[in-house]
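Dear support,

I submitted the protein below through the web form. The confirmation email said the job was done, but the results page showed an empty box. After a refresh the structure appeared. I'm attaching both so you can tell me whether what I see now is the final result or a partial one.
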Amino acid sequence: MPQLVLASTSPYRRELLARLKVEFEVVPPGVDEGHRPGESAADRALRLATAKALAVSERHPRALVIGSDQVAACGGEALDKPGDAARCRAQLTRLSGHSAEFYTACVLLGTHPPAHLAHVDTTTVVFRKLAADEIGRYVERERPFDCAGGFKAEGSGIALFECIESHDPTALIGLPLIWLAGALRAAGYALP
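What the results page shows now:
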């Protein structure tokens, strides 16, 4: 089997991939994640996942490389990682009582054996009406500053929602494992 490499700096993606019990290396892709004018959230996620996989594949040409990216949007407006408490509170206030879509792209790229598989998973999160004190408590407790949307569904952020509509619950955390497991099996990995 070729070496498996995760092109990522995300601890969440690393933890998710470890669930599949395959050996892999993590390599930071060093890709500019800036917006492009007129680019949809789904297109941006796929572009960045592909760019990450390509960047690492150039440095590891005999490896099978996984690139992934997630872009969230509410009402057509992209939601970036908040970065700090004030922006996190503002983002959650904006999301209160609304739905947001999370586009999680995953690309599996390799030359030996040749592979170029790509997928975009869409998850819809419906937020309940949130009071300012609930948002404040949540942000203080969880500090989800490095998460698109400003929450962690795998943590206490789950209490912020009315529902989640998804085909793959791991996609919301950052890596669609159902699709990726199938792609890895197609590439010859023995997964349950």
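Response: this is the final, complete result; the empty box was a page-load delay. The beta strands are 4-7, 25-27, 64-74, 77-79, 99-111, 114-127, 161-165.
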